[in-house]
């Protein structure tokens, strides 16, 4: 499915680099820049997304969410904006709203593996590790070489005490990323927890 505004990578790179004159003076200048863009083009969703990202980087989640919400009023079927708003809700600790936004992202773009991973992480933060594992497993089906998905699922298995599956996932991470120190460390911890 076409992602209407930007890919997440493009969003992050552009938000960091679009306003080169703002880069040397920090987030407040970038926020001022995007606020001026919004004054000039009040129906341009990208300016709201970029300003929201600047607020997000400052951990001003309420303002970030407000800007993402405004962008969604302009482009209501944008999976990426639901995803980034879900991330802001998640980091704010509002897991139910995060799950709702990740679910909407998946509804709009069922192939968006990161939305499954992040929804799984939100479920885990609520203590629902079975749903978390199911979502991350779906992400792995979509992108079988996505090391962070295996890493994340391994953590969920470990919390459940299923160290064999956790180790298997972290060993898969090492096949994908042989130098991954986190996977090596977690394998060692899991083996110690298992008693060998």
Structural class: mainly alpha
Quaternary state of the chains: single chain
**Considering DSSP H and I runs of 4 or more, what fraction of the residues is helical?**
over 70%
| Low-pLDDT residue spans | 1-26
CATH class descriptor name: Mainly Alpha
Describe what you observe in this structure.
This protein has 196 residues and is an all-alpha fold. It has one domain: Tetratricopeptide repeat domain (Serine Threonine Protein Phosphatase 5, Tetratricopeptide repeat). 77% of the residues lie in helices and 0% in strands. It has twelve helices and no strands. It has helices at 8-17, 20-23, 27-40, 45-57, 61-74, 79-92, 95-108, 113-125, 129-142, 147-159, 163-176, 181-194. The chain is elongated. The termini are far apart. Mean pLDDT is 89; it is low at 1-26.
What order do the helices and strands come in, and which of them pair?
Layout: H1 8-17, H2 20-23, H3 27-40, H4 45-57, H5 61-74, H6 79-92, H7 95-108, H8 113-125, H9 129-142, H10 147-159, H11 163-176, H12 181-194
Helix pairs in contact: 1-4, 3-4, 4-5, 5-6, 6-7, 7-8, 8-9, 9-10, 10-11, 11-12
In short:
The chain has 12 helices and no strands. With 196 residues, it is mainly alpha-helical.
Quick tags:
196 residues, mainly alpha, Serine Threonine Protein Phosphatase 5, Tetratricopeptide repeat, 0% strand, elongated, disordered N terminus
